Amino acid sequence: MSELLRRYGLMLTLAFMTLTALWLLVLVILPYIYLFEASFRLYLPIDDVGGPKDIYTIQNYITFFVTPIHRWVFGLTIFYSSVVTIISFIIAYPLAYYLSKVASGKMLPTLFLLLMIPMWVSEVLRSFSWFIILSLKGPLNYALLGMGLISEPIRWISGFQSVIIGLVYTYVLFMLFPLYNAIQSLDTNQIEAAQDLGSPWWRTHWRVILPHAKPGIASGSVMVFMLAAGSILVPSLLGSTTSRWFTEIIQQWMFESQDWNTGSAYAFLLLLLCTLFVSVVMRIFRVSLSDIAR
Amino acid sequence: MSAAVELDRVSADFGSFRAVDKVSVTIGAGEFFSFLGPSGCGKTTILRMVSGFISPTEGHIRIGGENMDGIRPNKRPTVLIFQNLALFPLMPVWENVSFSLEVRGVDKATRRARAEELLRIVDLPGSGDKMISQLSGGQKQRVAIARALAVEPKVMLLDEPLSALDLKLRQHMRAELRAIQKRTNVTFIYITHDQGEALAMSDRVAVMSHGRLQQVATPEEIYNHPSNGFVASFVGENNIFEGRIEADEGGSSVFTTPAGAFRAVRGDGVTRETSSRLYVRPEHAKLLNEAPSHGNSIPVDVTDIAFEGNFINIQTIAPNGQYLVVELRNDGSVSLPERGAKRHFTFDAERAVILAEETQASHRP
Predict the structure, then answer these.
(1) Do B247 and B219 belong to one domain?
(2) Residue B113 lies in a domain
(3) ipTM field
(4) d(CA A164, CA A134)
(5) Residue A209 CA to its chain's centroid (Å)
(6) In B, residues 166-205, which contact A (CB 8 Å cutoff)?
């Protein structure tokens, strides 16, 4: 703070601070408060707003619990977000290990660049490209057929398949970087010591590297899970007729039914229930918040 | 004494840099063997080649008579104690100690019992359930040794494991390590840049410089009869005179230096053609009030006196500007000269040795 003052003077510092505060207030805090308040009010015809029927109630929240299809979609969203998290981990762990312990220092900048380049393209475009790649007569099927690996084109965009592929692709880096940081902080001597004591590679990973990387796994998983569960773009662009994501229901409430009240209630429920789910999973794996912050 | 470890013309290159150059040495079973040298001399590379983390560029390593080419660290009968110990901080002490047994699939009860047994050997009974972070430096050291002993290795490799400890603990652990080695009769290969450690603990010492062996001998031999100038100046202190051999008379030679001509013995392989220097250890020199009638003598002025407790270092300066040091044992009866006093720096011809520079092109067997 005093450093800021010294560097930029009183006026400029005040200007920065005010702008940041305004930005936070107007774009983050106020909308949340508005939605939170709205979620406890009924969706009424315009004439009744402010009238005797306009009362605070938890009816909107109850709607979720008494609508089996919405509960089912929520369950599917949690389940497939977990699947996305696990697949991201399976892909990111070997890569993180390679980047932090095997790759030479000279190669690292290039490798990181290769990982980052796709992120320069907007999520919408990337999801559309996957739509093209995965389509029935798309390049993926063409390549697989050409290599003789399959004899019939596979219908990739069916069920949750394409949504999972899209979400893993979009969020795998959020798993990779925490893992990379965690594994990198492990003293290489520990890995060598385990080998020297006779440990085969899988046991070294199981007993030495994975336990050390646990905080990274936890923070990566929380991020990927929450992002996946809250994603609207990928499920709507890559979803099939049989895949339904909870965020799509929120979108329907808000934009198709114009019922912002129930929509906000569902949005807060998503946040609340996902947080609950994550806390329970963290408890099961004996990870605490302070581990993640480490 | 059968051979535990044989290095057969072993070399290691890192790119164009040769870290270890044609090192051949045979280390006997049950021996406490040290590689001594300054940092960058290749000693750690040798250790990592024996443990299998690096493959030699040339040559072969045999352990217990078996060629180790292509055998991975986890399949070698060696165990390495890392400089930073590399204990597993997320496991309790007993799991650390019995990790190698876990690897072999030994059941938990047996592992637990064996860990306790090993902790007793290293004098840490009952600490099995502690976490590594709860231990002191010396205790961590012991856990590392216990963990290594659990492997029942033929050869234990130690990479300066005492360097992080304070002086008192270091001296204590020296004796402890030596005792554990004698008790278990495991071959120890010890890496250090600390000559005191190497001399005090080892059966034999290999002095290394620039990837080459300079001398392999017992500590007494290394100190009393260094094979070349590098060994002489790396192990212990010396007054070093530049110059050349002027004449040979009987068993000794006359060596002329800017400070005068002195009689001295010639080291192995030193001829009048080799570039060489004269080495006199401070404890072998004397300061006399009067110039002796014969023998090596230089008139000097006393410039400084350092009182170290059990001995006293007296620094003097010769007429040609060279500093010369005399070390006196403090037996309680020494009378110290004043600073600025005029004295005569003398030494016996048998105690002064002419040595060549360090071995560059070839090694000693």
Answers:
(1) no
(2) yes
(3) 0.79
(4) 12
(5) 25
(6) none
Q: Average of pLDDT values for A30-46?
A: 89
Give the gap in angstroms from C-alpha B88 to the nearest C-alpha of chain A.
7
Nearest-CA residue of chain B relative to A211?
A: B90
Residue B259 contacts residue B319 (beta carbons within 8 Å): yes
Q: How many Cβ pairs closer than 8 A exist between chain A and B?
A: 59
pLDDT single digits (tens) A65-100: 999 999 999 999 999 999 999 999 999 999 999 999
CB contact under 8 A, A192 and B86: yes
Are A9 and A141 contained in the same domain? no
Take residue B200 and report the two structure tokens written for it. 């005090």
Longest dimension (CA), chain B: 79
Longest dimension (CA), chain A: 78
B47 CB neighbours in chain A (<8 A) are: none
Q: What is the pLDDT of residue B97?
A: 95
The residue among B201, B230, B259 that closes a domain is B230
DSSP state of B52: T
Question: Are A6 and A125 within one domain?
Answer: no
The arithmetic mean of pLDDT across residues A191-211, rounded, is 93
Host domain of residue B345: 231-356
Structural domains counted in chain A: 2
B151 and chain A in contact, CB less than 8 A: yes
Interatomic CA distance for residues B185 and B31, integer angstroms? 8
Is B131 at the interface with chain A, CB within 8 A?
Answer: no
Same domain, A87 and A144: yes
Residues A25 and A74 in one domain: no
- Verify that B346 and B279 share a domain, yes or no: yes
pLDDT band at B309 (very low <50, low <70, confident <90, very high): confident
